[in-house]
Design a protein that fits this description.
- Helices cover 71% and strands 0% of the residues.
- The longest helix is centred in the N-terminal third of the chain and has 23 residues.
- With 258 residues, it is mostly helical.
Length: 258
C-alpha cells in the first residue's frame, strides 16, 4: 500500500507539473501514458524502482534526495523534468531560498547556461506557490564565517600550482567562489557541498570529487549519505557516472575512517 500511495502522489505531482508547464509555455514532461506508449518497461521501472523504491530508501532523506536530483538535472541541462522535481523538493522541505541558492551555486559548478536554463521552471514553481522576493536570498548581505587558516592553505596551494598559467582563474576562485559564494548563508555548508558533489558526479568530473567530498564530510555529510547520494545519482545521471565516481568515494571514506 505504501508503494501505491507513493506512486499516486507522484503521478499527481506529474499532472500538476504538466499543467503548469503547458500553461506557461514550458516544455512539458511526458506523462506515464506517454511513456507507456513508447517504453512500457521504462514506465514499470519508473513506478516500481525509482518512485516506489529508490526515493524511500532510508539512507538519505526525501529533502536530500531532492537536492541531489535537482543538482543533477540542472548540471546536465535536463530541464524537462524540473517542474515535477521542483514541486517535489518544495513539498519535501527544501525552501525557495535554498532552491535559489542551489541554482546560483550551480552556475559556477556546471556552467552559467545550465543555471540560466533552470530559471523558467523555478520561476513558475515559485509563482504557483506565491513565493515573493522577500522569501529569496538577497544578492548581497551577511556572510558565514570564513576558516581563514584552511582558506589560506587552499589558496596558497592553488596559487603555486596554477597562478602563472591562469592567474585570472585563480583570482576568481579565491575572491568569488571561496570568499563569497561558499559563504552565502542561504544554503547550509553541508547542503552546498551536497550540491557540488552531486553536480561533479552527474557531469563526470571525477578529478574534483576528492576535495569536495572531503569538504562535504567536514561539513557534516556522513559516509552512508555519501554512498546513498551515488545510488540516487545512478538513476538521474546514469550508471557510468556513478561507477566512475565510486572508487574515489570509496577511497575518501576509507581514508577518513583510519
Amino acid at each position: 500500500m505504501k508503494v501505491v500511495a507513493v506512486v499516486i502522489a507522484s503521478l499527481t505531482l506529474v499532472t500538476l507539473a504538466q499543467a503548469q508547464t503547458s500553461k506557461q509555455g514550458l516544455k512539458a514532461m511526458p506523462n506515464m501514458e506517454d511513456v507507456r506508449a513508447v517504453a512500457p518497461a521504462l514506465e514499470q521501472y519508473a513506478d516500481g524502482v525509482v518512485l516506489g523504491d529508490l526515493w524511500n530508501r532510508p539512507g538519505l532523506s526525501q529533502r536530500d534526495r531532492s537536492i541531489v536530483t535537482l543538482s543533477a538535472l540542472i548540471a546536465r541541462g535536463q530541464t524537462v523534468e524540473l517542474p515535477y522535481y521542483l514541486a517535489r523538493a518544495l513539498d519535501s522541505g527544501v525552501k525557495p531560498s535554498e532552491i535559489s541558492e542551489l541554482i546560483t551555486h550551480l552556475a559556477f559548478y556546471s556552467g552559467w547556461a545550465n543555471a540560466i536554463s533552470a530559471v523558467p521552471a523555478a520561476r513558475e514553481a515559485f509563482r504557483a506557490r506565491n513565493v515573493g522576493p522577500d522569501q529569496l536570498p538577497a544578492a548581497k548581505g551577511s556572510q558565514l564565517p570564513l576558516d581563514e587558516a584552511a582558506e589560506a592553505q587552499r589558496a596558497s596551494r592553488v596559487g603555486e600550482q596554477f597562478g602563472k598559467t591562469a592567474p585570472g582563474l585563480v583570482k576568481y576562485t579565491t575572491d568569488v567562489l571561496f570568499r563569497d559564494l561558499w559563504l552565502r548563508p542561504g544554503l547550509a555548508p553541508r547542503d552546498r557541498s551536497l550540491v557540488t558533489v552531486s553536480a561533479l558526479v552527474a557531469t563526470g568530473q571525477v578529478a574534483q570529487i576528492t576535495y569536495h567530498l572531503n569538504r562535504a564530510m567536514d561539513n557534516g555529510l556522513s559516509a552512508e549519505q555519501a554512498g546513498e547520494t551515488l545510488t540516487q545519482l545512478a538513476f538521474y545521471a546514469g550508471w557510468p557516472n556513478a561507477f566512475s565516481a565510486l572508487p574515489v568515494v570509496k577511497d575518501v571514506i576509507e581514508k577518513r575512517s583510519k
